[in-house]
Amino acid sequence: MQNKTNKKKPPVQEVKKPIITGSWHGKHAWSLAGKRAMNMLAVIVIYLIGGMLLGFDGLAGRVFSCVMIVFAAAYYLYASGLAQGQTDAAFGEILYSRREEGHNVSAEDIDRSFHPLKGLFAVIVGAVPFVLFALVFACITKATVYQLGALPGWVDSLVSQTEVRDALCYYESLGGMKAMNVLRIIDRAMIMPFINVASYFGPQASLLAERLSPLLILVAPMGYALGYSQGLNLRTRINTGIKMGDEKKKRRERKARKQRQRSKSPEQLI
Asked: Within 13 Å of residue 50, how many CA atoms lie on the same side as its CB?
């Protein structure tokens, strides 16, 4: 009895099916890059909504919200990349089987197949417009300082007086800052969780975050590249699971067949 209970099952052998490796920069990769650009907009929306829902005053709360929001966006893209990578790997298996059977495989079909760097290429190309914007802004941004707010409407009637106009002339010199403020709003929206943490330490820390924004923008989207690169491994696990399921089914059938034979044996003896 002890020998039966202590008997270990043999280790499961992974089923690694060969595939035809596709192109990392082909037509299919460029189509994925266009979708990644749309994902960048989705990430910005997640950052904005998460920043509003998880707003904290303390440093610990800001760090927690930053980690949670960025992780949620990165995990969403990781799952998306993993699914796409597995699909392309499965397509590569089909192409390999067709070629082994003597069928012709077109270059367009090969381009659609899995390549471990295809996801990284798609992320980088899709993020180019956002990174270029952040790069330009990082070169021209300056530390934010306190600025006077807009004047109320009832002050307009007093501007005609010389002494009042001279006192309020500083407000008229703030018009050139509007374009810079718009650029800052767009840039900070793309790195909102990081800005929330940096603003706790003051204007200089916020300035550093703005200058690092071309890199911070890519933190969450890189989850897609990482997920896609694991697509072939996921396909291997799926094939292994299919094999285990088939073997388990065969064992049940053999067991059921033996039980039927045992149940019939007494009738044959009579």
From this structure: 27
What does the alpha-carbon distance between residue 132 and residue 190 come to, in Å, rounded to a whole number?
12
Q: Which two tokens stand for residue 42?
A: 């989705």
What is the b/e burial string over 217-235, where b = at least 16 CB atoms within 10 angstroms of the residue's CB? bbbbbbbbbbbbbbbbbbb
Sign of the Cα torsion 81, 86, 92, 98 reads negative
Q: What's 14's DSSP letter?
A: P
> Residue 109 is encoded by which pair of tokens?
């079909």
Q: Which of 172, 169, 214 is nearest to 191 (CA)?
A: 214
Distance CA 39, CA 122 (A): 11
Whole-angstrom Cα distance, residue 69 to residue 43?
10
Specify the pLDDT at position 270. Answer: 47
pLDDT digit string, tens, across residues 240-255? 888 777 667 777 777 7
- Copy the structure tokens of residue 23: 């192109």
